[in-house]
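Sequence decides. Consider this:

===
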Amino acid sequence: MESNGKLAVVIMAAGKGTRLKSQRPKVLHEIGGKPLLAHVIAAAAQLAAPEDIYVVIGHQAEKVCAALASTGVRFVEQTEQLGTGHAIQCARKSIVGYANTLVLSGDVPLIRPETIAELWRFHQAEKAAMTILTAAPEDPTGYGRILRIHPKSKPSSNRRRSPPRSKRSARSTPASMPSRPRRCLPNSASSPPKMPIGS
């Protein structure tokens, strides 16, 4: 697939995977004989050229880079793992020339190319500043939550492992997110991300 400069894909793959209690980087654990991250890259490559895919690495960065170097994607290092928003900030300079950015998680190997393509189509059709793909698992315990509220109210998300009782009925969890960098991403790693949430 040829690069058109319209869409960059950022895959977050810097986490330690503490809950796995493993010395291996979380995204290098395998399913179906391939690292989790390899599945996500393969799905993203159906929509963007490898040179337009940026993988944010941090924990054991050299191992992750070596394992996926043959895919042809680009790597951006997050030297300090300061959260999801900070990971995207680390990639900002690399994606500043693109009109849109699609953010994916490197530990979601079952994301389908068809799902990503439909999300991208919807985002363009709506001319949205940001679009968030959500999932509704039977048991969302341990996941961040997306709270669907009135359009005129301030949108919000909840990243707490145990959200307040009033929000525990919310089942929507974030899956991926395309956005327009100039309108949505913070200018520097020193400023916290203040991004609108749509669904």
Summary: The first strand starts at residue 7 and ends at 13. Confidence is low (pLDDT under 50) at residues 188-199. The longest helix spans residues 113-126. Residues 60 and 66 are 10 Å apart (CA to CA).
